[in-house]
Design a protein that fits this description.
The protein is of the alpha/beta class. The chain folds into three domains: 4-82 and 200-278 and 389-455, FAD/NAD(P)-binding domain (3-Layer(bba) Sandwich); 86-193, no CATH class; 282-386, Polyamine Oxidase, Chain A, domain 2 (Alpha-Beta Complex). 37% of the residues lie in helices and 23% in strands. The strands form four sheets. Strands 1, 2, 9, 10, 11, 12, 13 and 19 form an eight-stranded mixed β-sheet that branches. The chain has a seven-stranded mixed β-sheet with strand order 7-6-15-16-17-14-18. β1 (4-9), α1 (13-24) and β2 (29-32) form a beta-alpha-beta unit. α1 (13-24) packs parallel to α15 and α11 (274-280) crosses α13. It starts with a strand and ends in a 6-residue tail after the last helix. Bound molecules: flavin-adenine dinucleotide. Flavin-adenine dinucleotide is lined by residues 9-15, 32-35, 40-42, 54-60, 227-228, 256-257, 286, 337, 380, 383, 412-414, 420-423, 425.
């Protein structure tokens, strides 16, 4: 059983990045992807002739420099550097986001600013009483920022009370989780003027598209429209079965599928306790509602962040404001993000009802009513991992089971149940390919060291 060297499951940034690096290093690679295109959650597609993403996507400047250099080489001047221009709704006001000191001082209501400053000064006196999202942030930032911003936002994003979420959700998801880190971020914004991000002119998905093209040029074979339906694990190789009936035999399988899904697809069946644990790891789903507007621009801002509970929309972005040039002059598209649970009432609403819900929500936040000419909806069943308190007890047996399979590797946002950015997924891809020796051996020590680095990833908004 050794037809190809590596079969990669999933063609998001993690899978395609790994396929690219492994193929460039001379390995035979086959990629299996359920969708008809590469990109995963970081892919782009067209709505009304405009390239859009799955919600607001930016390439953060904290990306590893060698990976950025490779993307620059592949994308050329298509990869633009753009100033961020977002706003967040705080205490009924619009504040520049990322936060800037001058703007904060000018716009934040006085009582809010004073209470937040007092909380910052008293931070050294607070300690978390339990390892929950609520306690970690209350100790770090104090009650004002928590009650008026982070807690309402957390309820919308994860659908769980902040004190039912693990402290890990705060450490890995909130980059400004203490006054000093918050201050550093605000000051960084002020020193550099506006913070910047990288974005390809043709949509965020161009990153994975060019990597897939380069991987194919290096010999990787991509099979799109091919869902993985079974993963047979043996000591000397792997057979991956697909919905078309075809199977791929390989020396190694690198999976970027959701880890609980991988465990359910595996034979032999994982030992007792693993599948029940898989059932306890939950992902938050996301509805993406695209509104087509018959006007050149909705606002000058790239994104509006909406933590307030009066609308289920957490963020609305306008793709044309993420790039310079190339979009039609007479229309624009908005993308509203509505976190939910797959199968719940919100998830099941029709396009027109969702369009109306978004229009009302934006108007209630003081934004112009969009008056959309058309509505398109996309559904992501695995948008965010939900770190309920104690989730580690469900993750650990699954991770240990996967780690004990000699020919299996699991990584990427879904594969490691990590709320990571694309640049983190690419770092995982690079690390996986780097650990693969030219003779097909795998450096477990290098991978273990890489896993420690991944554990320090903090999500950037
Ligand atoms: C709303 C939102 C906003 C985000 N904003 C940003 C941002 O601003 N910047 C940033 O860097 N990142 C952002 N991210 C995160 C980014 O999208 C992810 O980090 C990235 O997509 C993870 O890549 P991945 O390859 O690990 O997983 P995915 O992109 O999820 O790819 C997994 C792939 O596996 C495929 N698959 C699943 N099941 C099967 C099966 N049975 N058979 C075959 N294929 C299968 C899927 O179709 C998918 O293509 C955002 C994510 C969301 C949801």
């Amino acid at each position: 059983m050794d037809a190809t060297d590596v079969v990669v499951l999933g063609a998001g940034p993690a899978g395609v990045g790994a396929a690219y690096r492994a193929a460039r290093a001379g390995h035979r690679v086959v990629v299996l992807e359920r969708s008809t295109v590469p990109g995963g959650a970081a892919g782009s597609f067209e709505v009304a002739g405009i390239r859009v993403d799955h919600g607001s996507h930016r390439l953060h400047p904290s990306i590893d420099p060698p990976i950025l250099a490779e993307l620059r080489r592949l994308l050329g001047d298509e990869l633009q550097e753009r100033p961020r221009n977002g706003r967040i709704r705080l205490a009924g006001r619009w504040i520049a986001f990322p936060l800037r000191p001058g703007d904060l001082a000018r716009r934040l209501p006085r009582d809010f600013a004073l209470a937040a400053a007092r909380d910052a000064l008293t931070a050294p006196l607070r300690r978390p009483r339990r390892d929950t999202f609520a306690e970690v942030l209350r100790a770090g930032l104090g009650p004002t920022m928590c009650e008026r911003f982070y807690f309402p936002y957390a309820r919308k994003i994860w659908g769980v009370e902040p004190d039912e979420l693990s402290g890990a959700q705060a450490r890995r998801r909130v980059a400004a989780a203490s006054p000093s880190r918050l201050l550093r971020r605000v000051l960084r914004g002020s020193r550099e003027g506006r913070s910047v991000f990288h974005y390809p002119r043709g949509g965020f998905g161009r990153i994975v598209e060019v990597l897939a093209e380069a991987a194919a040029e290096a010999g990787a074979e991509f099979r799109y429209g091919t869902a993985v339906t079974g993963v047979d694990l043996a000591a000397d190789g792997v057979r991956v079965r697909t919905d078309g009936g075809a199977a791929v035999d390989a020396a190694r399988a690198w999976s970027t599928l959701p880890l609980p899904m991988l465990a359910r697809l595996a034979t032999p069946e994982p030992p007792a306790g693993v599948l029940p644990a898989a059932g306890r790891l939950k992902f938050r789903a996301m509805l993406l509602v695209y509104l087509v507007l018959d006007r050149p621009r909705y606002t000058e801002f790239d994104a509006h962040y909406l933590p307030e509970p009066s609308t289920p929309v957490t963020r609305v972005s306008e793709p044309r404001n993420y790039r310079d040039g190339g979009d039609p002059p007479d229309r624009t598209v908005l993308c509203a993000e509505l976190p939910c649970t797959a199968g719940d009432d919100l998830w099941s609403l029709g396009d027109a009802e969702l369009g109306a819900l978004v229009e009302d929500g934006l108007a209630r936040q003081g934004l112009p009513r969009p008056g959309a000419a058309a509505v398109h909806v996309r559904r992501l069943p695995h948008a965010y991992p939900v770190y309920r308190a104690g989730f580690e007890r469900a993750f650990a047996p699954l991770d240990a089971w996967a780690g004990a399979q000699p020919r299996l590797l699991t990584f990427g946002r879904q594969g490691l149940f990590a709320h990571d950015n694309s640049h983190h997924a690419l770092a995982m891809a690079w690390a996986a390919a780097d650990a693969l020796g030219s003779d097909g051996s795998f450096d477990d020590g290098a991978w273990a060291a890489a896993r420690e680095r991944f554990a320090a990833h903090v999500v950037e908004d």
